[in-house]
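[Q] Does anyone have a clean structure-token version of this?
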Amino acid sequence: MTRSAGFLAVAALTAAAVAGPPGTAQAALRAGHAPQSPARLTVGDQARPLSVEGAPLFGWTPRDRDPGEVQSAYEIVVREASGKAVWDSGRVRSGSQEYVKYAGPSLSPETSYTWTVRTWDGSGKRSLWARPAAFDTGLADKDWQATWIRRTTAEADDYTLARKDFTVGDSKVVRARVHIAAGQQYALHLNGETVDHGPAFEYADDGFYKTVDVTSRLKAGQPATIGALYHWYGSGQGRPKGEPGLLVRLVIDHADGTRQVVVTDGSWKVTRGPWKKAPKRNGDAGDYVEDIDGTAAQLGWDKPGFDASSWQDPQVVGVHPASGFKHLHGQETALTYRTVRPVKVTRLDSGALVADFGKVIPAVPVVRFRDGVAGRHVDMHASYVLNDDGTVSRSKDDNQDTDLSYGYTQRDGDQTFRPLTYVGFRYLEIAPGSGAEADDISAVLQHNEVTREGALRTSNAGVNAAYDLMARSALYGSQSQFLDTPTREKGQFLGDSVDTSLAMMGAYGERRLTRQAIREFIASQARYWPDGRLNAVYPNGDGKRDIPDYTEMFPGWVWDYYEQSGDASTLAEAYPVMSAVAGYVRRYIVSGTGLVTDLEGGSGQYKYGIIDWPATMRYGHDMDTAARTVINVLGVDVLNATARAAETLGKTGDAAALRADAGTLTGNINARLRRPDGVYTDGLKSDGGQSAHASQIANAYALAYGVAPAGTRATVESYIAGLGMQMGPMTAHRLLEALSSRPEDVVTRLTDTKGPGWGNILARGGTFTWESWDAPETGQSFSHPWGATSLVDVQRTLLGVTVTAPASAAVRIRPPLTGLDRASGRVPLQRGDIGVSWNRAGHGFSLSVDVPVNVHAEIHVPARSAGDVRVSGSARLTGMRDGYAVFEAGSGHLTFRSDH
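[A] Here you go.
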């Protein structure tokens, strides 16, 4: 969708729908039902958060059986665990149902609260109270009263076990929480079970902690053991060096009102974990090969009664905050883990086993050895590719220059090999003579936690397959950070994060990981870039480095997040950074041409802008330009996105100045960077002459970002359509966005099995989007989620669903006139899932739509005239437009039939 300034007008239309024009369903609802009690209560987009910091942000979904309904008011009540009311908002006249800020007295740290909400509909009828939900407040740094500890070692790859025995108090346990932080990974153990594990890839001076509910795992009066494995392994992409350490605080609340606290201190015991010294997998992520010695495993180390007399006392770093560990904040995101089995296991003539998991997955392999032999070493290799002889490929080109080997030394008896750190792979080969059988092989797949999921099915199997590929790739590339790839770098690159975030919001209604990533890149500016730039990777192990056009992507990303979520708090938090980015761009607009010229930043092939990547994906783009069209178009988006944020936040002066500068820059682009036929060149040379090359990316960006004038858009669209696919997976979504008025071309680009694109990935056996269309030929990554973003264009252009007001308060439903015969799907929006199903048969067209409560829909029905449309449900015709009869409607189920 072309970016526009129409959100305020749409919001006004939505507000008008609350009152309801005469003759509409809203006006008739005075005789309707009272709304049902709200559902899906959240705090900060979490159903049951355990570490809420600052004022809680409440969200819910209003429900109503009547059509065309809206929320006109709400009331929130927050209570202590005892039932005593802490805050009652009273009746608040508002349609807001997301990120509603707590406005009561200060909440106590490390405390459980319940809350509920009720709503009023458009006619003033009141719902029942929602089923109460709960949240816990988090910890300030001063509240930890726990000591950072570590094992004294100089190992670069440090696996350390730590444990503490204690006895649970005699009174019944009513609440128990473990708060844990570590450098850099951990697995939390309690009474012989692993109860949580995760990474902590942040800067030590601004890290995360996790809170875990262990109430059901502790029994009054019983001995107990709390322990952890922590893993520190220095710096890498997406991983600052930091320092090793473990911080734990276990809090047990008893029925008699007493509180028992167990914390890390000098009384704990530590020892080395059973990992052997091994080489690094590569020089990017800096992961080490995992070679585990089963004979050195300390069986039962995390259970009461274990003899830890041979373990050493820990090095006591100090009470938090201490050393480099300056600040911790609660982690909002979470990972989901599930066990998957191979779709096929083959025993080769050599005796080796080769497991095929069917798809590339981010996972750790798990192998059970039922009859281990002490001292028997087993070599294992994961891979993306099989050789012709059925063995897994160990080629660096096939595996992202990464050593995907594992090792395990067995002890006698039954045991299971499970490494700690995930990688991306599809195949696993286990050397002959291991004792393992096919049923003994599995993997633990991990990805960012999601609670909702979209869906799409169309009349074109290639479109369906491309959508599924993109949705899965986005999910698997979303870990504790947005990754460029789960194998090689494992870094949160800014450009990759923008792409994957958009896909995750579209396919899964994701919010928390996007918000975390936005805040991390906000922090990167404060840490490294007083001139307004942002780090290209953050957090990261190689310090200060940027890519200019990645910095330019940030303001538009923040606005996209706000448009999808309605999260004004994060928009306000990001606004100073957006403004600084706008200032950075403005400083490089030269007076002679009025264009952004030699935008400072980057190095090597990224200097002044990456444009597209890898370099083969530039398809001849003229990099010898000083005023690059792509950089200038992104500059317009920086100014426009920041202006929209300013308008939303009431900064009218800023908004006007930004809009004016965006308009001037747009005019200069169109005056100086186009050929006489209206097609955009790649930019101006340093001598002021135009580039002779007119790349697809320069022209697609001009269309997608609304720079191309209306009168020449058709010419530019025809030009880029004629080029096929000459943009890489990183940027190809802007091509599909630019072609949104030509849905048949969108279908072609998605499904072409011969030329570059998603159809070709699938035709060549790919199961994850690639780093480049030519990845098999150039040795690039077979697992790059940045190619997933175009699923949003599938939703908008082919299913026909576009959000037109922040928080999905308003949507447009416009099925395409060409390209497909039918489509149906579900899009997870902030205010609920919207369902669409349409079918074209001969000259007939049918459309059914399910609109959530408190959402206004503009529905476009293909028709020759308004009189050809038959409607079931409450909708108001507003007129004919571009071959569509256009209707306005509120919530509920609606169906339309027409001749066209």
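[Q] Thanks! Anything notable?
[A] The chain has a mean pLDDT of 95.
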